Amino acid sequence: MEKIKVAILGSGNIGTDLMYKILKTDGSMELALMAGIDPESEGLKRAGELQIPTTARGIDGILEDRGIRIVFDATSAKAHLAHAPRLKKAGIIAVDLTPAAVGPYVVPAINLGDHLEVDNVNMISCSGQATTPLVYAVNRIAPVKYSEIIATISSDSVGPGTRQNLDEFTLTTANACQKIGGAETARAIPIINSAEPPIIMNNTVYAVLEKEGDEAAILDSINEVVAEVQRYVPGYRLKSKPYLDIRHTPWGDLPIVIILNEVEGAGDFFPAHAGNLDIMTAAAQQVGEQFASHLLKKGGVIV
């Protein structure tokens, strides 16, 4: 079967886990290159052991003539700002796993189909992938005046890159809850938990409604969206039945939908408790697969 050649830019933990996810999926992508800047990185070593071509020349190695059509950028927000125009000039689609947000935000279960003709899409953040679908599920039934998400993740699943990008993380996640989730305003609060043994990713979503909504319809909508996300993140689930309560807010006494969610990883490279990392790579793999299928239908041409 004809496949689209793809590359991973960034041989750290995110790039390495993504490599395993692409390799275990018999889809429309062929992993043609793993690129990093440290020749001794574990990711490049593991790729070499799996007979995946590697380069320690970063994006320069990718831009050599290898027929690569899609690049997953798993570096940093600052680095992607430099990578994006070079990939665009080369006619390569960029799936951005950093908070740089050069291209439109994408959540596979919600809006990927709207962006299959663009050359750069942004995967938001781990919490963006986990919580935006829940805000969206509520808002499509009852308008959300304000959403607040609290993401609690294990300290050992938060690497130096994520820590350096925490400001971008909070802004990007909140923006996604507005632009994709549909909330009028939004806030994202990350909590890094150092407990031992490590906890799995937990998310709390508060969705303040403009007025009373149909609770049964909201619950049905949430369950439908959770099932969609579970198609590519099996460990994505509700911790309990969401509920609607009337609480005092800055806008008066308004109904609030409260959703408790957790994400357990698939264990491809990360430990199972690192669901925050796993949901990013699983979502990126899904995005890449749909882009590759779309390119094959068009004969491999990016318009």
TrEMBL record:
<feature type="binding site">
    <location>
        <position position="276"/>
    </location>
    <ligand>
        <name>NAD(+)</name>
    </ligand>
</feature>
<comment type="similarity">
    <text>Belongs to the acetaldehyde dehydrogenase family.</text>
</comment>
<feature type="binding site">
    <location>
        <begin position="157"/>
        <end position="165"/>
    </location>
    <ligand>
        <name>NAD(+)</name>
    </ligand>
</feature>
<keyword id="KW-0520">NAD</keyword>
<feature type="binding site">
    <location>
        <begin position="11"/>
        <end position="14"/>
    </location>
    <ligand>
        <name>NAD(+)</name>
    </ligand>
</feature>
<feature type="active site" description="Acyl-thioester intermediate">
    <location>
        <position position="126"/>
    </location>
</feature>
<keyword id="KW-0058">Aromatic hydrocarbons catabolism</keyword>
<dbReference type="InterPro" id="IPR003361">
    <property type="entry name" value="Acetaldehyde_dehydrogenase"/>
</dbReference>
<dbReference type="InterPro" id="IPR036291">
    <property type="entry name" value="NAD(P)-bd_dom_sf"/>
</dbReference>
<keyword id="KW-0560">Oxidoreductase</keyword>
<dbReference type="InterPro" id="IPR015426">
    <property type="entry name" value="Acetylaldehyde_DH_C"/>
</dbReference>
<dbReference type="Pfam" id="PF01118">
    <property type="entry name" value="Semialdhyde_dh"/>
</dbReference>
<protein>
    <recommendedName>
        <fullName>Acetaldehyde dehydrogenase</fullName>
        <ecNumber>1.2.1.10</ecNumber>
    </recommendedName>
</protein>
<feature type="domain" description="Semialdehyde dehydrogenase NAD-binding">
    <location>
        <begin position="5"/>
        <end position="118"/>
    </location>
</feature>
<dbReference type="GO" id="GO:0008774">
    <property type="term" value="F:acetaldehyde dehydrogenase (acetylating) activity"/>
</dbReference>
<dbReference type="InterPro" id="IPR000534">
    <property type="entry name" value="Semialdehyde_DH_NAD-bd"/>
</dbReference>
<dbReference type="Pfam" id="PF09290">
    <property type="entry name" value="AcetDehyd-dimer"/>
</dbReference>
